[in-house]
Amino acid sequence: MLILANVRERRSAFLGAFVAVLVGVALITATLVVHDSARPRVQPRHAGTAALALPPQARDLDGSPEDRIPWSAAEAGPLLTALDRVPGVAAAVPDRAFYAQAIVDGEPVADDGALEAGHGWSGVRTAPYELVVGRAPRGEHEVVVDQALGVPVGGALTVNLAQGRTRFTVVGTVDGPGYYFSETFAARQQPGVRAVALIAEPGADTGALAAAARRALGGSGSLVVGDARAELQPAHVEHRRFLGTQLIGAMAVLALFTTVFVVASMLVLATGLRRRELGLLRTLGAAPGQIHRMILGEAAVVGLLGSLAGCAAGVAGAPLLRSILDRLDVIPPDMRLTVAAWPLLTACAIGVGVSTAGAWAAGRRAARVAPVEALFESPDAQRGMGRGRWIAGLGVLGTGVLLALGTAVASAENRISAALAATMALIVAAALLAPVLVGPLGRLLTAPFRRSGAAGPVLIRAEPTAHPGRAASLVAPVVAAVGFAVLLSGMVETMRVAYPAGEALKVAGQTIVTPDGTPGHTDEVVAAHPVGKAALPTRAFVLGGAEGDATVLDVLGSRDRRWSRPGEAVLGARVAGQLGLKQGQYVSVRFADGAVVGLRVGAVLPDDPARGDFVVARDLVRAHDPAALTDDIFVPGDAEATDSVPGTALHDAAAYALADYETDARLTDSLAALLIVIAVGYGVIAVANSMAMAAHGRRRDLAVMKSAGATDRQLLLLSAGETALIVTVGAALGLLVPLAPLAGMASGLAESTSSDVTLHLNAATLATAVAGTLLAAVTAGLAVTTRTLRRMVS
Known about the structure:
Elements: H1 2-9, H2 11-37, E1 51-54, E2 57-59, E3 65-68, H3 73-84, E4 89-94, E5 101-104, E6 107-108, E7 118-120, E8 131-134, E9 142-146, E10 156-161, E11 164-174, E12 179-181, H4 183-189, E13 196-200, H5 206-217, E14 222-225, H6 235-272, H7 275-283, H8 288-327, H9 341-367, H10 379-383, H11 387-409, H12 415-446, H13 455-466, H14 468-506, E15 511-515, H15 523-527, E16 533-534, E17 536-542, E18 551-558, E19 568-572, H16 573-579, E20 586-590, E21 596-605, E22 614-617, H17 618-624, E23 633-635, E24 648-651, H18 653-697, H19 699-707, H20 712-736, H21 739-753, H22 763-793
Parallel strand pairs: 7-12, 9-11, 18-22, 19-21
Antiparallel strand pairs: 1-13, 1-14, 2-3, 4-13, 5-6, 5-10, 8-11, 9-12, 10-11, 15-23, 15-24, 16-23, 17-18, 17-20, 19-22, 20-21
């Protein structure tokens, strides 16, 4: 009862923590709701299936389950026969999906799913799609297309395939997307079978069908039914989901860190302002454990109330987040928001847990004070630092420095997360060590005003010097807001200079042929450029290993004579070590058509992304993966490049580097902008609440100064000056904190891009972050001070 009474009577003191929890839980709830809604769903193309039979699964080099190993034609034949005989199965259909894209008026028709738009005619049954007009394809040059394409039956249509442009006669149209060819033609485009779709007879028992199908499969694969059929996802959908997951994950991590950091700072400040009240309870006989439990209980109640309100706000804000991600093309198309219970329960648990964790240290410190000592100003409050805080601060500082140094040697995909981790550690270190920093910084900043002889600067500088612990709690949210703003904007600016410069240096003097409206280059485009790098990628499976498992990895087919010797493979040192292979050894590789080829390791060379980690002859890849598309083609300066084939574009080194970076820069800029808004917006709210709490807690000081003759105007100016000093100190620390991680990042970029990369900051973002926090802090402090002065008069 005492806990609830305290929360009710001191609701203005707990308002800051309540708002901080509300905002943090709202952000976490919105991200979890969107993440849950973006889970893989059964694709429309498989809506008519009762089950899907899938081949065994391989593992990647890290041991995680990845691609399915396609059945060869010889393996798939008996399986199709056995599955077709299962009671209740109307048909067992090989599910083929390969590159097909219409060329209309000399341009490829825009289609995100073109990479998997080609199917055999039996594929219409898996949706199911209905034949609107015409008949099924029978000949090699016949095709059935989506009626929305607008090509009449009997008309000619040019379809781009991996081999190049091919003319077909449209013999029918269906009421769904895709290009449907004869089974013989589709089998040549994709010889390997990656899935078998089971079409059930009307009224068949799906459970009995699945059990019988599993027996028919034996150990040759696995069967998925119901929602598990969502395992088969188009590549473009998976790519969007991956990007969205990365962005949402970064938002959730930043929101969680900022919530923990801000709530802990606010509860420490709120508890410190209650020392006399807590001392009175100790004098009346309350045990230290009772005080500690009371503070934890109050924090839990505030956290629960803030979490409930935050969950409601997060559910309301989820459509806005979904709209933002949709505009960035980082969520699956046609994603529908669904609100499940687990995101709300998880976010609520986080809010309560953060509140109680934030109050733990403050409660222990308050509970240890003796009854009589608590009635006076605490020596610790004056000193601001205890032994435990020194140890924790220096320990976290050392960790942050090590992480900052690690940023320089981190890999490209881990460099951003390493910089974020280093900055988080250094922000925590700055908050822990702030009591010993605010005093000297405050004196330094106010030194130019001492010669004026006015009392204002003396009083302004006295507050952080006399109460460094309280000043440190006020500085903490400013450090977080400004620190993250500087880090994120600095990363974007530094990468904007580094990556294009490094990429342009690598391809200087070459003409680069890139896809324009297509997912890759066909053999027709490659034939038009007989000279230059034209890597043909495929996913292949290295057989063997300690447990006999298959390891999936990217294999590049090269026409460079150095790496394309028949029967040999060239490996990078890292991959060779992970696979346990050395030069001269033989390795069995299973390709997309299910065929197993023995290759000799011709060479193990230092890692080179431009060459590839596992390189074989281009003709070998094409022979076993007829549907594979070629990457960008790099034509030397002494050879001629052409864009005469539809779906291609030409770039020089500078234009290619900029275009290649802009593809990622759009997402990077958007991610940075979202994270900056979260960090600065949260920081502004936290700063405003902290300053309001501090101003409310100093009402006795205001009364003393007013009785000594200070006017209301002077007291308001004093409040604004103290607030501005605190924000300036926090902004200075916030600017310094991310410099080490950014410098490490610039050093790593300079080495990886072989170009001169220096640290770049965004002055506009820094100014906006500082101005926003300053305005919010001064406004909140003046509002509370004004109300306090009015109450004195009344």
